[in-house]
Specification:
Helix content is 59%, strand content 8%. It folds into two domains: 81 residues, Glutaredoxin (3-Layer(aba) Sandwich), CATH 3.40.30; 114 residues, Glutathione S-transferase Yfyf (Class Pi), Chain A, domain 2. The chain is α+β, with helices and mostly antiparallel strands and 213 residues long. The protein contains nine helices and four strands, in the order βαβαββααααααα. The structure holds glutathione.
Length: 213
Amino acid sequence: MSEVTIIGIGAASYVRTAMMICEEKGVSYDFETIEFHSPAHLEAQPFGKMPALRHGNLLLHETVAIGVYIDRTFEGPALQPDSALQQALMFKWISSIADYGYQNLIRDLVIPRLVGPSRGQEPDEDAIKASLPKIEVFLKQAEDTLAGSDYLAGNSVSLADLFLAPIIASVMRTPEGQAMVPQYKSITRWFEAISARPSFAAAHPPPAQAAAE
Ligand SMILES: N[C@@H](CCC(=O)N[C@@H](CS)C(=O)NCC(=O)O)C(=O)O
């Protein structure tokens, strides 16, 4: 029997983050697919998002909360730095990803470019074009950080890297991402390193469930 259950609909970015967190910690997990916005979904995640985590009687949502909980509850390599500065950098990056990166890279680019068309929706080319400068701002910030350290919060993998890796992987599936990301040498070096980790391979490609970003 697995130690925890990750609840979601498909292999969306934050679901992959939760999977990578479990993989990095060596925590066994099941993936439970639920019907979107069903009572079971809203019980696990009242805001109708994914993922949620079940551990015994605990149901927990918010990917950062899931990450901190798994990191502190289970044995395995620490995914949060010790120093106050690096801890602050880790949360700075998680917050930046949640508030700006996910919106600009996934909602404004990956979903209209890849997910919408897979459901028969035409992409709004003007809206995609308008999103590119904001994406550049985000990538420039990541590039500056990664020019000074191997990972986002120092020289070891932290939760922040596990948030960003699935997002960059999805962006790299768009023509815009393929044109932009390689221009950032430090992001490229970081992505080569993080995508070579077994945790990344385990979370990508997606499980059999319908893909969603
Ligand atoms: N604050 C939530 C956000 C979760 C979230 O936005 N998940 C996306 C998938 S990566 C989702 O559920 N998308 C479906 C939707 O917005 O309808 C967390 O950190 O877990």
